[in-house]
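DATA CLASS: polypeptide
GOAL: derive structure tokens

***
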Amino acid sequence: MLKPLTKEKTEQLIPLIATGKQYAYYWGKWSDVLNRLLISFIGVVVVLILNALFGNQADALILLLGGIVALYWLWCPVYQASLRNSASRRFKYSGFWRGKVLDVYLTEELIGEEETVNQRGELVIVENRERWINLVLGDETGFEVEVQAPLQRIHKGIKPGQTAELLVLSNELDLSQINKISDAYLPQKDLWVGQYPYIQRDVFLEVSRQLGGKTPPRVRRQSNSRIKRRDR
């Protein structure tokens, strides 16, 4: 099932300013926080040097710059998430999609590489891999899309046949070509699956209650749970 949404509703689903979950996503790990703190520190040092050079000539501007760079570590996640939201809001049309989980499988994803030196003094590249869950979603029209996320314990109960809902974005009025999708919601598990929390989830749940209607018809596809490796 695919039902078009108004521009107003789309802007409610994809806010201009970052949501709490989006902020948490870009807050990152302690290494990310330390990197931002380092940038803030360097920025403050530069501002102090400018203040020493120009003195009273630009006190107000230097004070403003100092405040901005000193708090960079705090506001940077908001800025990054807001940029991502802005890119999603540029699509002209959107729709509420409801279908089924057709397949569930796991992969090992390459999430980064580190350079280290072994006992013989040789430079070695170590691959950091992580297990991800992949959901193939589809409906009775033949439309299929794949959603993936880092594997967590809460994903244990996901299986083919469960209902799945998500937001689709397109530049075509009839939504014939889907350019982007949100993270997926599984109402039977009250669970969200995706790499990034694209939408205001409380607003989406309201749309789901209004437009969800009946359970979508069963879509037949052979389940193929498997483990495979795929580099990114």
